Known about the structure:
Chain A is mainly α. Helix content of chain A is 42%, strand content 8%. The longest helix of chain A is centred in the middle third of the chain and has 17 residues, at 61-77.
Amino acid sequence: MDQPAESSRPAGADALQDQVRSLAGREIVFDSEGFLVDTLQWTEEVARILAQESGLAVLTDTHWQVIRFLREYYLQNGRAPLNRQLKSGIGMSLLEIESLFPGGLKLGARRLAGLPNPKTCG
Amino acid sequence: MAEIVYLDNAATTFPKPREALERMIDLYAAKGVSPGRGGYDCAQEADELVYGVRKRLCQFFGGDDPDRVIFASNATDALNLVIQGAVKPGGHVVSSELEHNSVLRPLHHLRGKGLIDYELVPFDGQGFIDPDDVARAIRPNTQFVLLTHVSNVLGTIQPIEAIGAVCREKGVPLILDTAQSAGVIPIDISAWGVSALAFTGHKSLLGPTGIGGLVLRRSFEVQPTRFGGTGIDSQELIHTQTYPHRLEAGTLNILGIIGLMAGLDYLATHRMEAILLREQALARRLWEGLAELKKVKLYGPDRMDRRLGVVLANIEGMIPADVGAILDGDFGIATRVGLHCAPLVHRSLGTGRAGGVRFSVGPFNTGKEIDQAVEAMARISRSR
C-alpha cells in the first residue's frame, strides 16, 4: 500500500505545537488540535481512548462504520473522502454524522479516525 | 458534476460569463502569439490588443498613463510587486488589521529581514477603518499607506476618499488593494488620491484566474524586483527602466489579458452599477434571513449600503468547518469557511482559530439560491 499523501509534512512544521502522549501503550504525536501527526500510529484502541476523552463512552457500530469508512478511504486514496462521498459511503446525511460525534465531523469523526488535520486555512 | 449553489464569489466568481469564455478561446486561437516579441504582423496585433486592454484598465480605474498598467498573475502577485518595489530600507508602512495575508505576509517578511517597520491600524466594531487612525499612524519615515478597499471577510467598503485626503495632506502615497472591489465598485484613483492600485482579474472583473495587475500613477515609482526578457532593450544586460516592461519580466499571459478584456466588455454591457445593486440586494436578503435564526451569529454592519455581498456567520455550538461541509454535502451549497487568509480580522472579531462561514454572492446568484442557503442554515442550526 502506498504511503498516504496527506500523512507527511515538512520536518519541523508546527513541531512546536505538537504533543507527545503515551496512549494505548505507545508514544503518539498529536498536533495542537489533537490530530495524529502520523496516521499510521492509529489503532482502534487509540480511537476508543480519544472517544472517551471527547465524552463518547462507547463507540457504537454506527460510529465504527464512519471511522472505518474514513480510514479505508484515506488509506486507499491518500486523502479524505469528499463531502458527497462520505455522505453516500455511509448512507447518512453529514448533519446526522456530525451529530453522532461530540466534536462533529472534523474534530470528532475525522480526528478519531486518525486522519491528518486538514490544512486548508479557509 | 451536480449543480451547486455557488456562494464563494469572494474567492473567485463562478461561473464565468459564457460569452467571455468563448471570446477568450476565439481570440487566443487567432492572436495567441507572444505580444510585442517579433516583427511579424500577428505579434504586432497581439501587442496592440494588450495595449488596448492597458488603455481600458487605465480608464476603468481612473489612472493617468496606460503604460503604467502592469500585468501580474493576481492581486497577491501585484501587491508583492508594489510592496517590494516601493519600500526602502529603514522605511515604515501603515496598513490595517483588515488586510489579507497578501499584504500582511510581505510586510511581515520585510520586517523580519530588518528592512522596514510597519503599523496596523485597527477597525471598529462594524468593520471600518477610521481615517484619523491612519493619520495618527503616519510617521516621518512612512513610505506608503497600504489598505484594502473592501474587507474580504466582512465585505465592508472602506472610506478610501477620506483616507486619500489624509494621505495627500501628509504627502504619503496611498496604495489600494482592490481584490474584492474591482469590477463591482466604480474606482477613480486620480480623484481619490490613490497612488497605486492592485487588482485581480478573476473576481468581479469576471476574467480567468492567473491575471491581475497594478495601476500606477505617474508620480509613483516602483523599482523592479524581477528581471528578465521584456522584448525591448535586449542588447543591455541591465533590466529596462521603461514602464510597463520594467515590472513585467517574461512573456505576458495573453489568454488572461483577453479574458480581462472580455470581462470588461461584459461589465460594460450589463452595467457594473446594476450588478452591485443586485448583489447588495441578495446579500441583504441573506442577512435578513439568517438574522431570524436563533443560533446563528452574524458579523459586521447590518446596513448594506457600505458593504458588498459578503455575509459572515457562525452557528452556536458548531465549528465553521463542519457547517461548510454540511452545507456542501447535504445541501449542495459552496461557501468558504475558516480564516479567509485574514487572521487578524478573525482575531479582532473573536472568531479565533476556527473563523466563520462566509457566504459571498456574485452576478449569477438568484433569490431562490439565497433562500436555499437560509433554509439550509435554518435546518442545520435547528439541530443544535
